[in-house]
Specification:
The complex is a heterodimer of chains A (about 675) and B (about 90).
Chain A: H1 6-10, E1 29-34, H2 40-48, E2 52-56, E3 63-69, E4 78-82, H3 94-102, E5 112-119, H4 123-136, E6 140-145, H5 147-152, E7 156-157, H6 159-166, E8 169-172, H7 181-189, H8 205-219, E9 220-221, H9 231-240, H10 245-286, H11 291-308, H12 311-327, H13 329-342, H14 351-356, H15 361-366, H16 374-383, H17 393-403, H18 408-435, E10 446-448, H19 457-491, H20 499-509, H21 515-536, H22 538-550, H23 557-565, H24 572-580, H25 591-598, H26 611-623, H27 628-638, H28 641-668
Parallel strand pairs in A: 1-4, 1-5, 5-6, 6-8
Antiparallel strand pairs in A: 2-3, 3-4, 7-9
Chain B: H1 2-8, E1 13-14, E2 23-29, H2 32-40, E3 48-53, E4 58-62, E5 65-69, H3 71-76, E6 77-81
Antiparallel strand pairs in B: 1-6, 2-3, 2-6, 3-4, 4-5
Classes of the chains: A alpha/beta (about 675), B alpha+beta (about 90).
């Protein structure tokens, strides 16, 4: 099966070179190139194992994967670069640009060896790209992948003849099963090049295609041309791309995905939170009281916990999405949803980021990498945080309960309304942006629907690991820093105990008082002190200063402090309000917390949460960009601060305006 | 096949107007923006197509590649119907 002359095999011994004696035979780097859906990533994962990382290609926002591969023939591992799949080397797409920048010595690395991965079941189209690469690359090898599937479909490919026509070695492979790896390494270490009749560089697509079809039909037997699709794909597509059935299946698959995401991710998330809470307590017992202890136990431990807690969802999501993508289903889901989403200027692929953002916008925005077109990707990233994430849940619960105290049905409706409002705002915004700042580039769908395959667990694990690491190293570090700053703002400056607190403490310490009464008095003192600290901290002071801005929405300074502190993460709103209401820093919304918060009064003694103010706050939290980690990820994924700033400005602006309209409207309608 | 085409003359129809299962030969792509991408997927002049699903979006097969196209794109792909010679 291997298209290597026997003489080459005899030289095998020579290849066991010591590190320092690497001759010109050993390539400096191996670059993987090819069409999408050719199993390129599978090959990369098998070559590099766990030693791989995802990073942006220099000067672009398109991710490429780099890794090192240890070969038995070589003393030292060799670098491997996995280029994004491209259909045409000369096409003006980000993938084409990256391929041009990395191939043909353009990257300043003339000792690269290139593997062009081609799909044996789809030879003619793949050969166009292969011929383009072979034409510019001295050291190229063609990996004829998925040869096992081709054989199953009755195709036989003459590898020796294909090698002759291309002028480079052709290695038949089944990367999924690890078949052909030895031959591939050998071909890369013993470059052969013979003259071949390739289409000229300036060939029209028709000429290049005619050449490819000529070669493909000469080397392939058993091809049934346009009728030669596998029956399985044909049958599955009959259901999965159906306008109605396809949508139903999609809903089912997504429900399952979410169920798994919620059910499985909460276990490690709870574990992480408990572990770090324990760690914080340990730090507090080990270290003497003071600023350093507080910084460690609350600032740093809290910040790291607040970052790592996102990991389970991110890893699990990418694991599941990679499985779905590998099967070929993801392309069908995008196909089915394109009609719906394209009305709003979003691509069919946007459903993954938009749905995922209902759990959390961070993995949601990261999953926008699936979207091939940059304009479409930007539109999706910008609107994804409008989706009601799980961090909004406690806020919704608190505010809807405050709004509809004795009417649980109405509270439930308002709750559902929040989700609809968020999704509606996302689609509306995508529509508006598509006609303004992201104008003129919207591309109608042209989407390859690859054959269905059994997914690879290895690929899924690798993707989960890669995305988790990439989140930690880039966004994670910034998020930790932000958490520490936000903690500092709400913990400093320290406020001395007020006379009232001192008096309570003195009474608690009085001799002869029974233990229960003393505990009650101490708790009362602690609560009063927490409230004084919250109010006197930098965040509290800012709340006082900024309060006039939020007055038209019916927010007093306390609600404003809640808005400011929850900028770190929305769920902080509940604990902030609880502290300001004179309770413990309680994140759970229980009856005690709700009734305490309901009893909160403004400085003039009137209630803080009037119907109108609570409604305005609810709408504000649906729409506002109250999440710094999301902004960090947006900045990273869009390659600059510009779109993060736009997202913050637009969402906060919209939230303010709608909150204003709701408050003033309700007041005008007679609701106080 | 050449004879048939000449007899029919240059009369082409948009891909979007074909029935499911119809075979066709691609003649021209009038949408400038989509042309290069479609060509890179193998939708070049003279390519034999099979319509797998009609509507918006639709599915067309060229060789062993299945491609999903929005109606807007399918409208711009001009083809001549080539009947079912291969069936």
């Amino acid at each position: 099966m291997v298209a290597q002359p026997a003489a080459v095999l005899a030289n095998d011994e020579e290849l066991l070179l010591p590190a320092e004696a690497r001759g010109p035979r050993v390539p400096g780097r191996v670059v993987l190139a090819g069409n999408p859906n050719t199993g390129k990533t599978t090959l990369f994962n098998i070559l590099c194992g766990a030693r791989a990382k995802t990073s942006n290609f220099p000067g672009t926002t398109t991710a490429v994967r780099t890794g090192r591969s240890q070969w038995p023939e070589l003393a030292e591992p060799i670098d491997v670069l996995d280029l994004p799949g491209a259909y045409d080397l000369h096409l003006d797409t980000p993938e084409g640009e990256i391929a041009r920048a990395a191939l043909g010595g353009a990257s300043g690395q003339p000792d690269d060896a290139v593997v062009v991965v081609v799909d044996a079941c789809n030879l003619a189209r793949n050969l166009v790209f292969a011929s383009q690469v072979v034409a510019v690359e001295q050291r190229a090898v063609v990996a004829l992948n998925m040869i096992d599937l081709a054989e199953q479909r009755g195709l036989t490919i003459d590898v020796v003849e294909l090698s002759r026509r291309l002028g480079v070695a052709v290695v038949p492979m089944a990367a999924r099963k690890g078949i052909g790896l030895d031959a591939l390494r050998l071909a890369l270490l013993t470059p052969t090049r013979t003259p071949a009749q390739l289409p000229p560089a300036n060939a029209t697509p028709e000429v290049a295609m005619a050449w490819a079809e000529g070669v493909a039909s000469d080397v392939t037997s058993g091809d049934r041309g346009v009728d030669g699709v596998d029956r399985l794909t044909e049958r599955l597509d009959h259901v999965l791309t159906h306008p109605v059935l396809g949508l139903l299946v999609f809903l089912g698959v997504m429900t399952g995905l979410f169920w798994v995401l919620f059910a499985l991710a909460t276990v490690p998330m709870d574990l992480i939170e408990a572990t770090f809470a324990h760690l914080g307590q340990l730090t507090e017992t080990w270290l003497p009281e003071g600023a350093v202890r507080d910084l460690l136990s609350q600032g740093i431990v809290g910040g790291v916990a607040g970052t790592i807690v996102f990991l389970p969802q991110i890893c699990l999501l990418f694991f599941l999405i990679t499985l779905l993508e590998d099967t070929g289903y993801l392309a069908r889901a995008a196909f089915v949803l394109d009609r719906l989403l394209s009305r709003f200027g979003l691509p069919g692929h946007a459903f993954v980021p938009l749905l995922t953002s209902h759990a959390c916008a961070l993995p949601g925005i990261m999953s926008a990498r699936l979207i091939p077109d940059r304009r479409d990707r930007l539109a999706t990233i910008l609107v994804a945080p409008f989706m009601s994430c799980s961090a909004r849940l406690p806020v919704y619960v608190l505010l809807t309960t405050l709004l509809f105290a004795d009417r649980p049905a109405a509270a439930g409706l308002a709750f559902a309304g929040c989700y609809l409002l968020g999704a509606g705002a996302a689609l509306f915004t995508a529509w508006i942006f598509g006609r303004t700042i992201l104008k003129g580039h919207a591309r109608p769908m042209i989407l390859e629907l690859p054959s269905y395959k059994v997914p690879s667990l290895r690929n899924a694990f690798m993707a989960a690991k890669d995305q988790g690491l990439s989140f930690l190293t880039t966004a994670g570090t910034v998020i930790v820093a932000i958490c520490i700053v936000m903690w500092w703002l709400s913990a400093y400056p320290k406020v001395a105990e007020t006379p009232q607190v001192q008096e309570l403490r003195a009474r608690a310490a009085a001799p002869g008082l029974d233990e229960a009464a003393a505990t009650t008095l101490t708790q009362e003192a602690d609560a009063l002190q927490s409230r004084a600290e919250q109010s006197g901290s930098f965040a509290g002071q800012m709340g006082h200063a900024v309060a006039p801005v939020f007055e038209p929405l019916g927010f007093d300074w306390q609600l404003t402090v809640g808005v400011l502190t929850s900028f770190l993460a929305r769920e902080v709103f509940v604990s902030t309000m609880s502290v300001l209401a004179g309770g413990q820093a309680d994140a759970e919304v229980d009856e005690g917390v709700v009734s305490r918060i309901r009893g909160m009064t403004k400085d003039d003694g009137s209630p803080v949460f009037t119907q109108a103010a609570a409604a305005a706050a609810l709408v504000f939290f649906v729409l506002a960009m109250q999440c710094l980690p999301t902004l960090t990820v947006t900045r990273k994924e869009t390659g600059g601060i510009r779109y993060a700033a736009l997202q913050l400005g637009y969402m906060s602006g919209l939230a303010y305006v709608v909150g204003f309209v709701v408050y003033q409207g309700l007041r005008a309608a007679g609701v106080s | 096949m050449t004879d048939r085409r000449e007899r029919r003359g240059p009369r082409t129809v948009p891909l979007a107007e074909l029935a499911p299962g119809a075979m066709a030969i691609l003649r021209e792509i009038s949408d400038q923006e989509s042309r290069a991408v479609l060509q890179s997927l193998g939708l070049t002049s003279g390519a034999r197509l099979r319509v797998c699903r009609i509507g918006d979006p639709c599915i067309v097969q060229v060789r062993s590649t299945r491609i999903g196209l929005s109606k807007h794109v399918a409208q711009s792909v001009q083809v001549t119907v080539s009947g079912g010679e291969s069936w």
